[in-house]
Structure formats: C-alpha cells, structure tokens
Automatic annotation (TrEMBL):
<dbReference type="InterPro" id="IPR026444">
    <property type="entry name" value="Secre_tail"/>
</dbReference>
<dbReference type="Pfam" id="PF18962">
    <property type="entry name" value="Por_Secre_tail"/>
</dbReference>
<feature type="domain" description="Secretion system C-terminal sorting">
    <location>
        <begin position="477"/>
        <end position="544"/>
    </location>
</feature>
<protein>
    <submittedName>
        <fullName>T9SS type A sorting domain-containing protein</fullName>
    </submittedName>
</protein>
Amino acid sequence: MQTGLSGFQIQFQDFQSDVMKLKFLIQLILVAGCTPVYAQWHNDTIVVNSGGLVSDWSVQTWNAANGNYSTVGSAGGPGSYGVFEHYGQSGNNNNSAFRNDGIYNAAVNGRDYFKGPGNNPGQQSIGGSVAPVFGELFLENGTGQPFDISNANGADIAGSASFANGVTTTVRGTASTGALRFRDNAIYINTAAGDAQYVNGYVTKSGDDAFTFPVGAQDGTDLRTLQISAPTSINNTLSVAYWNGSADSGLDPTTVGTQSLSSLNPSGITGIDKLATVSPICFWDWVATSGTSPLTVTVSIPSFSGNGGYASAADMRLAGWNLHTLQWDNLSGSNGATGNLEGSTITGNIIDMSNYGAIAIGNVLSFPLAVDILSFSGHMDSECSAHLHWTTAAETDIQAFAVRYSPNGKDYKDIAGMDVSNFTAPNDYNYTMPEVPAGKAIFGIKTLYKDGNAVYYQKELYLNSSCKLQDYLKITPNPTQNNIMISGFKGKSDVSLFDIMGRRLYNVQTEESALQINMENYPCGIYMVNVRDDNFGTKCEKIIKQ
C-alpha cells in the first residue's frame, strides 16, 4: 500500500486485523499533516523509507516482534536517502528518544539525526533490546550534551557516525555486547574531540581498516585514544574500552586471569626491554572476538604526575596482558614514549591480536626509592574512626607523605599531609580519619619528593566502616511549616532539595557546620533533602512541608 507522500512507501506484512491497520493510518496522517510529536519512537511497525523524511514522529507500541524499518531497496534508488529525525525525550532504557525492539536497518541510504528533545539541546538515548543498524548517524543533541546508548545490544554503524554532542556512553558492564560497533569501512567524525567528547564505554571495529578508538575514562572527563594499524584480514573484530584505574582491580568485565601488575614476563635486559613495573593508573580492555592479525598499537598516555619514575618517557613501554602466559609482555621493545606529558603517545607491536586481553603502560626501571616503607596497618574503632600506622626504614629527599582514601577503589582523594624528618633510621607515622562513611574504606600512602615527583605505595589497606552520615547529621523540624535546619556537617558538603518529581529546587555547597533552608515559599507536600559530604558519604531524607 503506498501513500501520496513522494518517495515514502509503507508496506504491511502479516497484520491480522483492520484495527491494526487503522492505528497505523492514524500515525501516517500525523506524519503527512506535519504534526510534530515530540515523544518516544518505538520500532515495532513495518516501514520502508524510500527517500522520504520522517520527522518528529511517534508510533504506538505494537508487537515488537513485527518491527521492521528499512532503507534497503528503496524505490528512490542510489543517492535517495531515507532520513529519520529523532526529537524525543529520554529517560531510562524503556523510555528513550529511540527504542528498538524490532529490526531497524538503515545501513543503505539511511540517515538518522538526533536533534535533541523537542529540537532543543539536551540528553537523548538509544534504548531497547535489539541493536539498530545506522547508515549515517548524526548525534546533534547539543554541544556538550550526553548521549546514552542504553540498548542492551548496543548499536551498529554501517557508514559513519558524526559526534557533535558531548560524551557518548555505552553499557560498560556488557562489554562488547553493548558497544558502539563500526563495521568494515565505517568511520566517525568528531566536531570537538577531547575530554568533553568521546565514548565512555566500549567501541568495536570490524574489518581491515586502520582505526582510532575514541574511548575515554568512566568518569566522563578524560579522552584516551587507542589506535591500531590496518589488520591483514577483513574478518577481524576488536573491542576496546579505557579504564581509569588499575588493571588488577576488578574493573575489567572480560578479564582472563588476575591481570596482576606483579606478573611480568621475565625475559629481556634490565633497563632496556625487561618490564620492571606496570602502572596502576590506567589500562585499555582489549577484546579480540575474531581475527589473528598482527597490529601496531599506539595509545595516548594520561597524566603521570604523581607516579614516580614514570616521569621518564624513555623508560616507558606499552604492555600487553598475555592470555596464554597470564603475564604482562613488553610490546615496545627498547622504544619509549614520545614524552611524559598528558597526550603523549607510546607504541607497541602485537604479533597476534587474539593473544591479549588488556593493554597498559609499563616501565623498564624498578625505581630504587629514597624511602622504604616497611609496614602499613590500621583498624577501625567503635567511634567510626580509622587509625593508620606505617613505618619507614629510611628517608632521603622526601617532602611529605599524603594519606589517600577511597570508598570503592576507583575514586581517590588525598585526605591528609604528613611532614617527614628525612631520618636514615626507622621512623613511625600515625594518622586518624574520623567519621569514616559506612562501607568499604581503602587507604593508601603517597610519597612526595622534593623534586616534584611522587610515588604510590603499592600496598593498600582495606578496612570496613559501620559509620553512616545519618548517624551524625540531623534535619529538624520535620514536618515543617517554614524552615529546616541541617546540622552536623563535617567539612565540605553538597546539599540539594528535590520535589516529589525529582526536580532539584535548591543546591549549595557549604563548609559550615549547619545550614538553614527556607521552605516558606514552597507548596505543601513531600520533598527530599540529599547531602553528600567530602568523604563520599550520603544522606537522603524525606521532608514534609505542611
């Protein structure tokens, strides 16, 4: 059945009732009448777009198993593009600007534009359970605006992707399954490649093309590309994600073996090509699902400020986690990095891409340290304080020690500085952190040298705290008619007030011990106060305004 719309053909297959046809015609009338519908587009109809324009279009949720959108074999012929503009709002995976549970194949002569919610800058997403196939994908939902690919099976690019947004996120926990996948000969274009525009998650490349993976850190602030040379076969598929953190910390969802930083290939000459260390700062997950091509690999290094001997670019090496020996191999031979500043590069060679499971940055020097920490221990007391103790054997040219804290092994902060005496004999240090937030508490020691370098002590201390922010933070009165007083802040805190719809009405950062919020002008109802302190502790409490 063909409508009067020029170049836009619609085919029905296996519809069982006139009611279903009527529903579809209603939607068609909306398109023909140019009625804007800024809502979710759910692919569960049968549509062939042969060179027409579908814009601001919402379709009812029908049987997802019948979903079929295609630009292949269009009546318009080569060069006649089927264009789909997406203006929908985005929430979670089931409430996306574009949710695909059927077959979406725009690989040939298809162009998809995500223009932002209601044609305004804002977050959009691709949801659903079946990966859509885009011919040309344009993410134009606003400069710096996030775009989420929450579809459980990711999305495929047959031609090109143009990033004119901010950070694009995939489902990291599903690794290559939920990746943004580029097929053979597919490319991407960045309008402003950098720390504000990259893919936070997994990117997959298939085929025999040289390719730069536009991946970055999980916190959305650090682009760290990985580039490969052209594989020797079209039957190669490689997925890559960058992780800010140690390769042996359990971040990697595809790890084989422990990826222990101390498991090093023993071959080579010390100081030349024998690995002495692997950096705990970062790594790239490497998932070669098919192919055995040899590859030249180049990565963009992060800032190594505060990582000791990695200040020497000549001694850095690219390291690969060997899936067969379960050791880190030196991939760079005797060649170092181009520099030690953030954005410098380091290159290595892989004989068989299927042999490795992770890429990291190593060093051929063992860094004899001017301080030798003999022990590091600690315990929690009944008042929710952590008591730390460490002993040094000798200290030379040391500026200070910094105590580091993390609630999860990923987000670290320096919580204290300790002056040193530069003794040549053993010396003891103690530090107490009060009111440690509930849950895991990970502590480390960083040695600061007078020349500006720093070294992280390789052993961390794992404690567990039962103290909660709720235990010492009080919000009164509740219910209230006018004001509420929040007291018991410890250090810097972020305070927000939300209404029952989740809209933030008030936000402030304070270093005072108490804060008053005027509720007088807010209507009666239920509100939520959220407090996050400087030690990652959180408190969320319901407030009733009478």
